[in-house]
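Consider today's protein:

***
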Amino acid sequence: MSPKRPDGAGALEHSKALSPAPVKPGSSTFYAALDLGTNSCRMLIAQPKGSGFHVVDSFSKSVQLGAGLEKTGRLSRGSMTRTIQALRICQQKLRKHKVKRMRLVATEACRRALNASEFIKRVHCETGLRLDIIETEEEARLAAISCAPLVSRKTENLLVVDIGGGSTELVWIDMSGVPKKQRAQSVMRLQSGFGAGTDNLPAARVIDWISVPLGVATLRDQFNDVEDDAARFALMSWFFEENLADFSPYHDTKARERFQIVGTSGTVTTVAASHLNLRRYDRTKVDGLSMSSAQIDKVIQSYLDMGPTGRRADPRIGQDRQALIMSGAAILQALMRCWPTDRLSVADRGLREGLLYAQMSADGVLSDGAL
C-alpha cells in the first residue's frame, strides 16, 4: 500500500466532527478513550481538570490484532479472540466508572483487514462496545493534538510523528504566524480539523501530513526473511525513508532551533528509557525528555551490538517491545536523517490523549489556561 495524504489539507467533514452531549457535561464527568491498534489495546478514563485532564483508570495490553494480516489480508481467529478478551476488561472498567462520554477507535489493522466489519460486529455482540474505524487523517490529527502540551514557544515549524504498529502518521505544522504564548493552544485547536481556522484566534497551519502504511509490525514483516540483524535494520531504515521522499523537506533552510520534532510511540519511549538506563519505566522521566540525534544513534547502536538475544534479555526494552524495537528504531533513525533538526522531544502520549482532548474541547469543559 502507498502512503496516504490529502489532495488538500482541508477540515474533516461536519458529519465526522465530535458533537456535544445533549446535556453539557461538567468537570466531574468521566471520559474514556480507547485505541485499538495493530499490536495493542489501550484505554484511558479521565476527568477534565483545568486545561487538561486527570487520569482515573487505564488499561494496556499487547493483543497483536494484526498478526498474519500482511500475508492473508484478514484478521486471524486467534488475534480476534485475544483482542475481544482485552476489550471485555475495558468494558468492565467503563461500567465500573459509569462512563457516558467515550470514543472507542480502531486504526490500521481494521482499516486494512478484509474481515474488519465482521470483527467489529463480533466485538459489539460479545462486549457491547461499538468500535469506530477512523481514517488516517483523523488519526494523524489526534496524535498532533495529544502532543500540544510539549510544543515549545520557540517552535515555528513542528513535526509530530506517531509510530504505530501498522502505520506511521506524520503531521507538519507551521506556527510562525502564531504568538509564542499561544502556539501550544493553536495545535490543540486542530481538533476542529486540518485547516479549520478560527475567526478570532491565530491558527496553526498544517503544511502537509502523510500516513505511511509501515509501522513497527508491518515493517518488520516486510523484512522477516533477512537473517543478518544489521542488514535487516539498514534495509528497513532505507525502505522507510524511500516512502518519505515526497514529504520530507530535504531542501529546507529554516533554522534548526525553530524546528521541533515530537515523537509519540512505544519505540520512542523505549529508546528514551534505554538512554536514561531505566530498569523500571517511569513516565515522569520520559514524557517531555529532549534527546539529541547522537544520543538516539548511541542507543540504537547498543541495540545492534546486543543482537536479538541481548535485546530479549534487556529489561529496559521489555518482553512486549523486544520483537518490534529494531523496526521502530529504523523508522526513528530515518526520520532524524530527513528533517532539519538534531533533537527529538519524547512524548509518552498519543491517540488516547488526543481523543480525550478532542471530546473535552468539543464539550467546552476545558479551561483556556496555558497547557
